[in-house]
Write a structure and sequence with these properties.
The complex is a heterodimer of chains A (about 450) and B (about 60). Chain A is an all-alpha fold and about 450 residues long. Chain A has 14 helices and 2 strands, in the order αααααααββααααααα. Classes of the chains: A mainly alpha (about 450), B mainly alpha (about 60). At the A-B interface, helix 8 and helix 10 of A face helix 1 of B.
Chain lengths: ~450, ~60
């Protein structure tokens, strides 16, 4: 049977449609599973912070993580996604923002839109990750209510404003300064780390952390193994996070800045970064908690250039960061008396700066699609913007909460333990942990 | 100083930042090996020191 030209044309058209739909569905599926993998980051933060708490505060620490996740999902839906779409040019509202309004046709079931839901979901998980970075530093004395308010401000307002500015194809930090920050070392890690610093200054150290003469007491968590497993889960979740940093198009993979890349480039550099950070922190600390934090240091330190670094270069860069960042943490804790319970200011805030600046040193000259080429000055200027964007709201909002008595738990509650004070459950009901001398569950005054 | 091995993304395939010349590639690889080897030596020295300390103590 001879096919007519019309038949062939119809078949080609059908095949093209089918191919386009396959691409669309592949993209949708890819971000769906990236989001699922990112949930492992939250399982990780949950375990890691509970383990880093004394047993009398284990559940209260976990509640913070659960609530941060739970509150960020709706707040990012109502305002967070809109903020990201609205402000790439600074503080003027872009036309594209209307797609992020909760009453937009894109923000609900819509069979013609295969992108908005999965992108919202991936960004929401980024947001929850950002808030979780603050969470661990403030354990054992922050009020859960105050923390939840701060988590929403950080996760659904501040970091995404930073992302609009510097992790967006038209973000002004890229179009003006040539910022290149592929894996969000700036808008996620630097912003969250310095927001945390602002909070910790107002929050103050845990009771007993510092002596009157300025010397320091170690306050160890009740389960280092739990913390280590948690940190390894975060590393696993990073593969979802980093996958979510890549844009899937019909023509191939690109970075958020529309420059070409692929998962292979990310795979080489993610693994070499993790290994370099682990080895560097082992060398200077011998401490497994720091070795696993070093894995995060390694990825963040090379995060800005994860798409362009030669893997051997990533290994060295991350190794060096792993050697330096624990020392930065020592300075924060010992010299400045900032009680950062898990080292998040150093691991995320300062390593984020390392990542941004090292991109300017190691990979200056890479062309951007929009804006000037990557430069050291552009990376440094962007780092300063991210530091201020994190620190100022962190300090101001935590100060306001402190003024109204919502920032810190009462001294009595802190001494007795937040679990016994406000959690109607026991972490270890059948064990004989000294902190639970009277292991009956909490009964609230209303009961 | 520009260190990027490319000036445009048109037609780019492999791009080895700072390692686009044999000499720099070898230096970067050697530094990586050195970092690993130094850490291993340091690990052994740390272990030996700890074992000796424990032996003296007990």
């Amino acid at each position: 049977m001879n096919e007519t030209t019309t038949d062939v044309a119809a078949k080609i058209e059908a095949l093209e449609k089918s191919l386009a739909m396959a691409n669309t569905l592949n993209s949708e599926i890819f971000y769906w599973w990236c989001t699922a993998l990112m949930v492992a980051i939250h399982a990780g933060f949950l375990a890691y912070e509970m383990g880093a708490s004394r047993s009398k505060n284990a559940l209260a620490s976990g509640i913070k993580n659960i609530l941060a996740f739970a509150f960020i999902v709706p707040t990012f839906y109502y305002v967070g996604w809109w903020i990201y779409l609205a402000f790439p040019t600074g503080l003027t509202i872009s036309e594209a923002a209307s797609a992020g309004l909760p009453w937009s046709a894109n923000m609900g079931p819509n069979v013609s839109d295969h992108a908005s839901g999965v992108f919202y979901a991936a960004f929401t998980l980024f947001a929850a990750t950002t808030a979780s970075i603050m969470s661990g530093s403030a354990i054992e004395r922050i009020r859960i209510s105050g923390f939840t308010i701060l988590a929403v401000i950080l996760g659904s307002v501040v970091w995404n404003l930073g992302a609009a500015w510097g992790w967006h194809p038209q973000g002004w930090l890229t179009t003006k300064f040539g910022l290149h920050d592929t894996a969000a070392a700036g808008c996620v890690h630097t912003v969250a780390g310095f927001f945390t610093l602002g909070v910790l200054i107002n929050l103050g150290p845990r009771i007993g952390r510092y002596n009157a003469d300025g010397s320091i007491n170690e306050i160890t968590g009740h389960s280092m193994p739990m913390s280590l497993i948690g940190l390894m889960l975060i590393v696993m979740g990073f593969f979802g996070f980093l996958g979510g940093c890549i844009i899937y198009t019909a023509d191939g993979w690109t970075t958020i800045y529309n420059t070409p890349t692929n998962l292979s480039a990310f795979a080489f550099n993610t693994l070499l970064g993790v290994a370099g950070g682990m080895i560097g922190t082992y060398l200077v600390t011998r401490d497994p908690f720091w070795m696993m934090s070093g894995a995060l240091v390694g990825v963040i330190a090379s995060g800005s250039g994860l798409d362009v670094y030669y893997p051997g270069l990533t290994f060295i860069n991350s190794f060096l960061a792993g050697c330096v960042i624990p020392k930065v943490n020592d300075i924060i804790i010992r010299k400045f008396k900032i009680d950062d319970a898990v080292g998040a200011v150093a691991v995320h805030g300062f390593t984020g700066i390392w990542g941004l600046v090292s991109m300017g040193v190691l990979a200056a000259g890479y062309p951007n699609i929009e804006g000037p080429a990557v430069s050291l000055m552009g990376q440094v200027a962007s780092a300063i913007v991210f530091v201020l964007l994190g620190f100022i709201p962190g300090y101001v909002f935590s100060f306001a909460l402190k003024m109204v008595g919502l920032l810190r738990a009462s001294p009595d509650a802190e001494l007795v333990g937040l679990d016994k004070t406000e959690v109607p459950a026991l972490a270890y009901p059948e064990s004989h942990i000294p902190a639970f001398a009277q292991p009956e569950p909490h009964v609230s005054p209303a009961e | 100083m520009n260190t990027a091995p490319i000036t445009t993304w048109e037609g780019v395939e492999a791009y080895f930042t700072l390692a686009d010349k044999p000499a720099t590639l070898m230096i970067i690889c050697a530094l990586g090996v050195l970092a690993g080897a130094y850490t291993l030596v340091s690990m052994i020295r740390h272990e030996n020191a700890c074992y000796n300390y424990t032996k003296k103590k007990h």
